[in-house]
Amino acid sequence: MSFSAAKDDSGSDINIPRDIDWHMLDKTRFFFMGAALFSGVSTALYPMVVLKTRQQVSSAQYSCINMSSAIMRYEGIRGFYKGFGTSLMGTIPARALYMGSLEVTKTNVSNALVELGFSDTTSTAVASAAAGVASAMAAQLVWTPIDVVSQRLMVQGTGGSKTMLANLNSESYRMDLMLSENPLC
């Protein structure tokens, strides 16, 4: 179906706006659908983040295949999702803050620039850039501390002989972390 030829049930043309602004959105649906979709993507990609993080803290060279097979053997599928709950609970509000501040900033800056006499093209470009910067900064205030905690959970070993790879340099990592936070130790 072509949007240019769209008609409603009564046969009259449907006017589709060029841009969808913040005030046009169903915010409840926007945030719930966004959270659900983003959570699905996070669930699919999180095991790769765990592999990357463990490889970064490892002093030994392990391939992704060797590390992932060892995680599966010693920790099972749960090993690929260490820290996931923490990450998800922090990412959802950060994502909502990002999207909300992006749309509000974009609309307000664009309207202000149009009132100052700038063209639609210029105001849209400047508003999009300003909104991107402002929303990224706002979301990072929430997301960065949560990310630090979830990364620590990813490399934290649980003890015992079955978690040899899980403990892979976790003690060394903890010591390096303690020294970087308190150089007098």
Automatic annotation (TrEMBL):
GO cellular component, one term: membrane
Membrane protein topology class: Multi-pass membrane protein
Transmembrane domains' residue ranges: 30-51
Keyword annotations: Membrane, Transmembrane, Transmembrane helix, Transport
Segments annotated as Solcar repeats: 26-108
Location(s), subcellular: Membrane
InterPro entries: MCP_dom_sf (IPR023395), MCP_transmembrane (IPR018108)
Pfam families assigned: Mito_carr (PF00153)
Similarity-based family: Belongs to the mitochondrial carrier (TC 2.A.29) family.
Protein name, as recorded: Uncharacterized protein
Organism lineage: Eukaryota, Viridiplantae, Streptophyta, Embryophyta, Tracheophyta
